[in-house]
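FAQ

Q: What does a record look like?
A: Structure on top, sequence underneath. For example:
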């Protein structure tokens, strides 16, 4: 039976301020048992009016104790671009090599990435690893703004094609990028939609090498058609194509270097990197997390280091 378990509390959120730790198992929310409760239902129970409190009971395996915690509800503003430790420091992860993870494409993503690139360039970055793993997508416009940081002006980034002439659209790079440094993009089965557009374009143009596993394959455009009885029909009316006219939908993007990692391995890596992530774990789990290796990132580092050695 699955238990609601915290993978890693995000920085500067009510949960992290209240002292939640990776590995904590949520047993009750507002006195109600979480047995058989889905993640979505749990989120529904925890959400509420800003400034009010939500009380949860949890089991902490490392201490084998039950803890009651009261969390103050706030409006949560999360950054979509972060460094390897989930923060905004952007310290180089190896000599001359930078790393940035985009968790989704929201209003501010391109600006956040620009700020991160400037920090890393000032400290001597000569190559970048852009992590799009488990990024479900988001705003198409932002995926174009991110891609154009690495390609020439007026470069086709993605085209939308359907039967209807109104469904034909092209997104072009609007600004001139002077960034020519080597680039690796990390992808996996959780990279979808806008992530696949970025990865597919950069791979087509041979601007980046993709490392990881095949992406999700979500590249369709849906139109909602209202019906007379008040219901609606969601119809796929167009598909996204990469610059070389590859369809993304149901095919996904194949990486240049296939390195498989399980969701459990990915989860262990997240816990290992989170501040205080090991505190809430049992000895057995702690040993496993300590030994966890990010095989995909290691491969990306190896490729970048050999490319930079050639320059």
């Amino acid at each position: 039976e699955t238990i609601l378990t915290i993978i890693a509390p995000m920085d500067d959120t009510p949960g992290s301020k209240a002292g939640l730790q990776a590995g904590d198992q949520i047993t009750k929310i507002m006195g109600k048992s979480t047995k058989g409760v889905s993640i979505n239902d749990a989120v529904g129970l925890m959400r509420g009016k800003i400034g009010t409190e939500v009380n949860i009971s949890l089991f902490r395996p490392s201490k084998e104790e039950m803890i009651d915690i009261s969390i103050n509800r706030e409006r949560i503003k999360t950054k979509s671009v972060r460094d390897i430790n989930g923060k905004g420091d952007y310290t180089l992860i190896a000599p001359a090599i930078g790393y940035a993870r985009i968790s989704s494409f929201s209003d501010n993503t391109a600006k956040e990435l620009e700020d991160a690139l400037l920090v890393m360039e000032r400290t001597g970055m000569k190559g970048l690893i852009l992590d799009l793993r488990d990024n479900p997508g988001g705003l198409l416009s932002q995926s174009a703004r991110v891609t154009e940081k690495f390609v020439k002006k007026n470069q086709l980034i993605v085209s939308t094609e359907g039967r209807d002439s109104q469904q034909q659209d092209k997104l072009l790079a609007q600004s001139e990028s002077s960034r020519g440094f080597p680039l690796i993009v990390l992808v996996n089965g959780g990279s979808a939609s806008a992530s696949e557009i970025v990865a597919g374009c950069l791979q087509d143009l041979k601007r980046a090498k993709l490392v990881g596993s095949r992406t999700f394959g979500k590249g369709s455009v849906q139109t909602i058609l209202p019906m007379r009885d008040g219901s609606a029909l969601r119809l796929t009316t167009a598909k996204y194509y990469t610059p070389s006219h590859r369809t993304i939908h149901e095919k996904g993007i194949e990486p240049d270097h296939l390195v498989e990692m399980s969701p459990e391995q990915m989860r262990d890596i997240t816990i290992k990197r989170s501040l205080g992530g090991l505190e809430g774990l049992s000895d057995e789990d702690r040993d496993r997390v300590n030994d966890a290796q990010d095989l995909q990132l290691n491969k990306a580092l190896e490729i970048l280091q050999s490319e930079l050695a050639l320059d």
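Q: Is there anything notable about this one?
A: The radius of gyration is 21 Å.
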